[in-house]
Amino acid sequence: MAAACVNDALIVIIVALFLIPLPSSVVGGNFNQDVEITWGDGRGKILNNGKLLTLSLDRASGSGFQSKNQYLYGKIDMQIKLVPRNSAGTVTAYYLRSDGTSWDEIDFEFLGNLSGDPYLVHTNVYTQGKGDREQQFYLWFDPTTNFHTYSILWNPAHIVFYVDGRPIREFKNLEGVGVPYPKNQPMKLYSSLWNADDWATRGGLVKTDWSQAPFTASFRNLKINGCVWSDGVSSCNSSSNSSENNNSWLSQQLDSSSQRKLKWVQNNYMIYNYCSDITRFPQGLPLECTLRNN
Ligand SMILES: *[C@@H]1O[C@H](CO)[C@@H](O)[C@H](O)[C@H]1NC(C)=O
Ligand SMILES: *[C@@H]1O[C@H](CO)[C@@H](O)[C@H](O)[C@H]1NC(C)=O
Ligand SMILES: *[C@@H]1O[C@H](CO)[C@@H](O)[C@H](O)[C@H]1NC(C)=O
Ligand SMILES: *[C@@H]1O[C@H](CO)[C@@H](O)[C@H](O)[C@H]1NC(C)=O
After folding, report:
1. How would CATH label the architecture of 23-290?
2. EC number(s) (predicted)?
3. How far apart are CA 95 and CA 97, in angstroms?
């Protein structure tokens, strides 16, 4: 009898564990909860009870989604499997952006290519409506055969782009010496798949082959650790802080091992850096380029 009671109690506890709703920032991975499909007339789909999201593109339209919340600082991880085979002309974008004409933006864009030719990862940072801070990379794997994790860390000290946990780019907060830094405007997460064959692949030389349509990119395991911004109040400032939310990302820095990984990517896979493009800036490189390696 006693044993049966213990068993019953255990079952109750186990069932209860599955029923307790956890904050979305901890669970992650439910697109139904965190995002909404905003365009594409059915070409974007949330599947498997919110665990998978697919975007597709055909001649008539692309598609896209955005987060329901806006954030002032965040660490976003998302796994993406990019459009396979001939993806030339297509762009899969994944970015944070604020509203207005003087917006801030943190961009990942994946530029497709012919079968067997490398995808290009294009990154940019806009502050107060001004970008022109492109860095581009090849990847050290084929991003179309499996899901890989692409992350954006945005905290008061810096913005870091990661691929599978490996930093590929850091944009430091150099506000102290006059470089604007995104810190006042809350941003939403956006993602989309669209046709950009006027510029994306080899500068627009290779066009989208519509006989291959529809093109599809897949997303899963979205994890947003962010300071939700609502009516001028940040969730990171609330008293319900510490117990359930691990906000260590808010002060996360690049340790020496991460610095080495960053250097490895920049030495071996970076193919364009605005900070090295002297001919583009005849009046002189942007300030952040002259201060440190950015
Ligand atoms: C596509 O492949 C070509 C040839 O390898 C390469 O030059 C180019 O950078 C690749 N990516 C894009 C987006 O054009
Ligand atoms: C938190 O609140 C304090 C005081 O109200 C304010 O100075 C600070 O900027 C807030 N921080 C965030 C991240 O909102
Ligand atoms: C909440 O978290 C933020 C960021 O970690 C911290 O600055 C703030 O002091 C915390 N507030 C409380 C009431 O614990
Ligand atoms: C918070 O997260 C960091 C990195 O994600 C981890 O190293 C640390 O152990 C976590 N702390 C707690 C209290 O969970």
Report:
1. Sandwich (2.60)
2. 2.4.1.207
3. 6
